[in-house]
Amino acid sequence: MIPLEDNFADIIDKAQRGLGFSDGVLAGGAGVSVDELCAVKAERFDERVVRRLAAPLRLGADALADRAWHPAARQMSGLASFTTRYGGMSVNAYVAHDSVRAAAFDTGADAAPLLAFLSDRSLMLELLLLTHCHSDHVGELYRLKTCAFASEREPVAGTETFSDGHVFCVGNLQIEARRTSGHTPGGTSYVVRGLEHIVVVTGDALFAGSIGGAPFAYEEALRYDREQVLTLPDDTIICPGHGPLTTVGEEKRHNPFFTA
Ligand SMILES: [Fe+2]
């Protein structure tokens, strides 16, 4: 089981930096001491303090204090995920495919398992679509010898660009590019239609139970996630850049950034 990318302390830190609160302002707003805030940020869980911090951070208190939730594992034919190690963390890349043709989403830190998957199934890789330009997501670009695309808001060397709303067709799949900037200016999520469930590949715009850090464009990140991802049907499978798969319905109930 892939662990969640972020725990309560990571989430509190992301929200605090996004809103630009000092420790003193946040602790004062929550009615806790700075020492209590710092202990929680050092991962010493205290339910009373965590719940108090939720309101000034505009986070859902129940979701923030819930340490048992983990999204149910999802598997679906036509969708494959590849988790590779990058320094001390792991990063995800994905393939969506019909019986002949495939699209890849990001490269991961090591493209070998993705390339082996394609060759084992004799799938033709028609497109590589990048969610954003960070090196853990694009570092193996040169190994996937196919047409690669990144948003015109964030051109990446060696790729073509597209505009928001562009629809790519790969075999029986339609793949719509949606703006989800905030974590980076070019952040893009890809909505894939043509499989049993709709799939959305979010990169670092949205994780199971969290979001990618966006200290300089926090409101923007939240707004695009709300408007472009969480408006999809509840059974839409979300494929994040880090951490486990989830669904729109799970995130609407369990992601503290969207349950306040
Ligand atoms: Fe990133």
* CATH topological fold name of the largest domain: Metallo-beta-lactamase, Chain A
Percent of residues in beta strands? 15-25%
Largest sheet: 6 strands, mixed
**Ions and ligands:** fe (ii) ion
CATH homolog superfamily of the largest domain? Ribonuclease Z/Hydroxyacylglutathione hydrolase-like
The chain-level mean pLDDT equals 97
CATH architecture of the largest domain: 4-Layer Sandwich
So how many helices? 9
Distance between the termini: 28 Å
How many separate domains make up the residues?
Answer: 2
Strand tally is 12
Keywords:
Metallo-beta-lactamase, Chain A, 9 helices, six-stranded mixed beta sheet, 260 residues, binds fe (ii) ion, alpha/beta
Structure notes:
- There is one protein chain.
- The chain is an alpha/beta fold and 260 residues long.
- It folds into two domains: 58 residues, Orthogonal Bundle (434 Repressor (Amino-terminal Domain)); 180 residues, Metallo-beta-lactamase, Chain A, CATH 3.60.15.
- 28% of the residues lie in helices and 25% in strands.
- The chain has a six-stranded mixed beta sheet, with helices on one face. A six-stranded mixed beta sheet has the order 7-8-9-10-11-12.
- Helix 8 links the parallel strand 10 and strand 11.
- Helix 2 crosses helix 3 and helix 2 crosses helix 4.
- The mean pLDDT is 97.
- Fe (ii) ion (FE2) binds next to loops.
- Fe (ii) ion binds next to loops.
